[in-house]
Design a protein that fits this description.
Radius of gyration: 21 Å
Order of helices and strands: HHHHHHHHHHH
Strand content: under 5%
Number of strands: 0
Shape: flat
Number of helices: 11
Distance between the termini: 28 Å
Number of domains: 2
Helix content: 55-70%
Length: 327
């Protein structure tokens, strides 16, 4: 049996993307995004400095960035896994060319991963600019989605879900809402606004606290020497956090409405999986607030958010399938 197929490698790619996204979230949430002040090396080393002599050399090269091993490790591990994902995409393209199918999709995927590498460099060189970091996360979501689309196309599905086709427009609206909510979540994280409100349903004991939306959503703000720990005012962070909460409420109720519209004996497994992800995501989001953003919970919130996006990728893909099984 030939294991070197687009189906197998794209499935591995989806799984590997979740590892990379989880490691990226861990790096960001552990405030380790500048664990290495240079790129692609770390303090001028291929791996990272470990011995006292190497640490002395590193700190001499980068006097403004003292070596912190506990922040270097997440950053370096994330970089190596991300690089491995690029190698996987190269292998997938070679297999697609050999099989003479899904060549365009595999080629686009590789280009996006190359772009991700560039944004990885920009994340470090532009000192964690929130717009760059947010775009980097969206690149990871697009990468995962492309791996999944290649996998689904390689399955050569023949079944058509008429109810999904019928409600295509509603699915696309939900998809757009979830994408916007993912942006709000990423913007909350990259601007260190997750701890701006640590009570529910209030924020700092107020239903309508002081909030500066103009500053909070200034996408091109100046970041100073670096953006570690953020530079926005408290009111700006409150504005970001509140908007993310409101977005979550909108997405939650629209998702319940969409699930009700899609419910049938034929689509039941898809809808149940979608609702399961939705309720897990709501739980993780609430627990982020009530438990003061524990690292494991925040990383899980990132991963399940991506899984929700992928559930819409699946439903959208199936809603565009014609009766002959083509997309």
């Amino acid at each position: 049996m030939n294991l070197l197929t687009t189906k197998n490698f794209s499935a591995i790619g989806v799984a590997f993307c979740f590892i990379v996204i989880g490691l990226g979230a861990w790096t960001r949430l552990a405030d380790a995004g500048l664990g290495c002040p240079d790129w692609p090396g770390c303090y001028g080393f291929v791996t990272f400095p470990t011995t006292p002599d190497e640490i002395a050399i590193a700190e001499n090269l980068f006097p403004d960035s003292p070596v912190e091993i506990d922040k270097i490790i997440p950053e370096v591990v994330h970089r190596y896994f991300a690089a491995s994902l690029g190698l996987l995409a190269i292998a997938l393209l070679i297999i697609a060319l050999r099989e003479n199918k899904l060549k365009l999709e595999s080629g686009i995927l590789l280009l996006i991963i190359i772009g991700q590498g560039i944004f990885g460099y920009l994340t470090v060189s532009l000192k964690l600019h929130p717009l760059i970091v947010t775009t980097h996360l969206f690149g990871a979501i697009i990468t995962t989605s492309l791996f999944l689309i290649i996998f689904m196309k390689s399955l050569k599905l023949t079944k058509t879900y008429d109810l999904l086709v019928k409600n295509k427009t509603l699915i696309i609206i939900g998809f757009v809402l979830v994408i916007f909510q993912i942006f709000l979540g990423a913007w909350t994280s990259t601007n260190y606004a997750a701890r701006a409100c640590l009570d529910l349903p209030y924020c700092q004991g107020q239903l309508i606290p002081d909030a500066n939306f103009e500053e909070g959503f200034n996408l091109f703000q100046s970041i100073g020497p670096n953006y570690l720990y953020g530079q926005m005012s408290y009111e700006a962070r409150v504005a970001i956090h509140l908007t993310h909460r409101i977005g979550a409420i909108v997405v939650f109720f629209y998702s319940l409405f969409l699930a009700a519209k899609l419910w049938s004996s034929e689509t039941k497994p898809i809808v149940i999986a979608f609702l399961t992800l939705l309720f897990i995501q709501v739980f993780l989001g609430v627990n982020n607030v009530l438990s003061s953003l524990p690292l494991w919970n925040a990383v899980g919130h990132n991963i399940v958010g991506v899984m929700l996006v992928l559930s819409f990728v699946v439903m959208t893909f199936l809603s565009f399938r014609r009766r002959n099984g083509n997309v």
